[in-house]
Amino acid sequence: xxxxxxxxxxxxxxxxxxxxxxxxxxxxxxxxxxxxxxxxxxxxxxxxxxxxxxxxxxxxxxxxxxxxxxxxxxxxxxxxxxxxxxxxxxxxxxxxxxxxxxxxxxxxxxxxxxxxxxxxxxxxxxxxxxxxxxxxxxxxxxxxxxxxxxxxxxxxxxxxxxxxxxxxxxxxxxxxxxxxxxxxxxxxxxxxxxxxxxxxx
Amino acid sequence: xxxxxxxxxxxxxxxxxxxxxxxxxxxxxxxxxxxxxxxxxxxxxxxxxxxxxxxxxxxxxxxxxxxxxxxxxxxxxxxxxxxxxxxxxxxxxxxxxxxxxxxxxxxxxxxxxxxxxxxxxxxxxxxxxxxxxxxxxxxxxxxxxxxxxxxxxxxxxxxxxxxxxxxxxxxxxxxxxxxxxxxxxxxxxxxxxxxxxxxxx
DNA sequence: ATGGGATGCGTGTAAGCACTTGCATTCGCT
DNA sequence: AGCGAATGCAAGTGCTTACACGCATCCCAT
Lengths: 201, 201
Prior knowledge:
The structure is a homodimer.
Chain A: E1 2-3, E2 9-10, H1 14-36, H2 39-45, H3 50-57, H4 60-72, H5 90-107, H6 109-117, H7 123-149, H8 157-173, H9 175-178, H10 183-197
Helix pairs in contact in A: 1-2, 1-4, 3-4, 4-7, 5-8, 5-10, 6-7, 7-8, 8-10
The structure holds a DNA duplex (30 and 30 nucleotides).
């Protein structure tokens, strides 16, 4: 039961309850991991009866999997333009990718970490989570190969892709250790160091 | 009871049982996390009775904390030479640090990940785990400041430290996504890109 | 040989967990 | 009005878990 607009109270739609449960599940899962997440607590936080949760998802495992899928639903939607092909300016290409990747990863930092840590006991979440980044990595490698053949960048494409993505990855993941400058700054600095570093000064 | 050498079977010392329990705890903890780690399984793997485990550590929480401390006991032992001060060659300084850091982090990759992921529910392990890296980070920052004042490197010391350590960090943590070249190669490449990148070509 | 410390062993307990079931209720739709 | 789908509610089941306790056993130092 949820109050909606200026009308009287109406019943939430099944879709609504479903997404409320998924959101609650995520909030608790990133705090406590799989074993630490109890169906009771999820139901409570979603303001839903525990039985309803099971009626929707069958069991806890399926719930968590649905939660992962839900979180990654719109991954990589705005990457098409970048990967259409090399444009004139490598620096601005990379900067665009950097900003998008930084924001995308930051929005799911907690899930990314948990999926890495829980990988040995539950590869499901890991696989869902890393699908898009893997694609990006491969595409970026191809991008460097192409740009390389045009003489726009130097160095091994695989190593370059590894390092460039690694720089972004490290910034998002290690923010609690290394502090948190804003993403624009990081993106600029990354592209700068990187292109300079591989000899595009 | 453990057979030792060609002599007859002798009883293991308390110290011995203690470390056996700690090792078993680590093996299971990195696979299953805190909630997933059961005292029964740890005891089993350590070939020790469950009661013995409690007699040694009191409770599960204390056991895990002891395990973290034990794992970090010898952290940063061979960093003194590096941080004695700037030597003639920045590149070889950094390369030395890189190789040591890469090996150190790789040996504890699983624990590092888990400590990051479990941070919100249990900062204890996190704090133990990240003590040395934090120190390294600060010292590296100071190193860059000093080297900078001598005109050996350019750029903001904090940003430089962040980026350099970030590159290493990303390589160890992301190895399953980005593949795993060997550490010597990574160290060389990192120092190279980095120094080039900040303008020390 | 003997006493004390460390360990094994079994049993027990109280709590928490995923998941089920049967029934009452409420809302939207025709 | 009335049907059906979605939900609430309460009680329960069977399993696992951390942790406690009492007692027997074994080793080592005196």
